Amino acid sequence: MSKGGVQGFQKDRLSQILAARRLTQVQLASMVDVSPATISKWRAGTQAPERDALERLAGVVNVTPEWFTRAPGAKLSLPLFRSNASAHVAARAMLEARLEWAQDVTAALMEYVDYPDVNLPSRDYTDPEEITNEDIEKAACECRDLWRLGRSAIQDLALAVEGAGVIVVREETGIAQIEGLSAWSAVLGRPLILLSTDKNNGYRSRFDLAHEVGHLVLHRHIQRTTDNARHKLMEAQAHRFAGAFLLPAETFAIEVRMPPTLDDLLLLKRRWGVSAAAIIMRLKALELLDEDGASILHKRRSARWGGKSEPGDEDRRPEQPRLLRRTIDLLVEEKVMPLEAIPRHIGLAACDVEALAGLPEGYFQGKTNVVEFARLKATQKPVDDQPAQGNKVVPFRPVSKS
């Protein structure tokens, strides 16, 4: 039980903000002008900050004081990170906190809009060892069928994923080693995916997104582990899913001239929106290349282009999430919520809401026009004395099948 101080102070919010801002208790204590021991007591819940200390705390970490009295939502399922290295513990904690904030933003907006229903293949695996390559291929095909994508190249994967009810966030994280993470939210009844923008490569970003969809489909009911062998297996399975989803066997294979040259790979890269390196992996998975053939192509690729980039990487811009951004714009356009009230309603700083929702910097100081995208609920609560509007439906643009 906390002694004295502000009633209702949520100690878990303090832990969350330390992770999100990548601050130590000592650093935060110096910023707030209290002792590290005081921060420890706040974090343990044995003491709550006084009003003036809470205001200083909120000011230095850029949230509202009231945010610290909001109970955090239920924990997300544990994400599976691409890197399992102990050196990245703080980075993983920061990204998990950002994903929890994305949950908060989405939950606050769900009071006013209906998002697309979740539409993902259902799998009940509890051990990665029981998942076969054939299972992965079938799951990828089922996902395409559910989303009515056919078997051709996907024009906009981010749009397709959001159309399936997944919340996608893409922001600069400062952590280039971790391309993305995903988790299921009991609060939202839907999954979330966070992608890093630090590597501004549209081809790799698409693969990262498909990789996270693979985790959501294949590994939803599998306990996360620190065992490296098990972790690598789950990563390999998500990679295989991404390749099968983006490069479906029955249509992709017939376009490949065997044996493929590097120039052939570049043509396929542009056609399918997948890197040459990922195409080599897919050809090996389909047994169109054996181990030696794939190794030779990888070596030629590295010798000609280097290990980190390929010709044409700049030709495809990373696909941008739209759902949260257009939801916020819809609420403002329909006068459900004033522009400046939205960050206050969520409790986070305007810059954090802008980053998580994919809004341009300074959006809440002067909104730019964005096409609406979401469906308002039939009954809405007005905010700041703004009248609620009727149940207007804004059409959700269908995914292209071309």
UniProtKB/TrEMBL annotation:
Regions that span the bilayer: none
Superkingdom in the source lineage: Bacteria
Region (Disordered): 300-320, 380-402
Coiled-coil intervals, chain numbering: none
Gene Ontology MF term list: DNA binding
InterPro entries: Cro/C1-type_HTH, IrrE_HExxH, Lambda_DNA-bd_dom_sf, Rad_response_metalloprotease
Name of the molecule in the record: ImmA/IrrE family metallo-endopeptidase
Source organism of the structure: Acidithiobacillus ferrianus
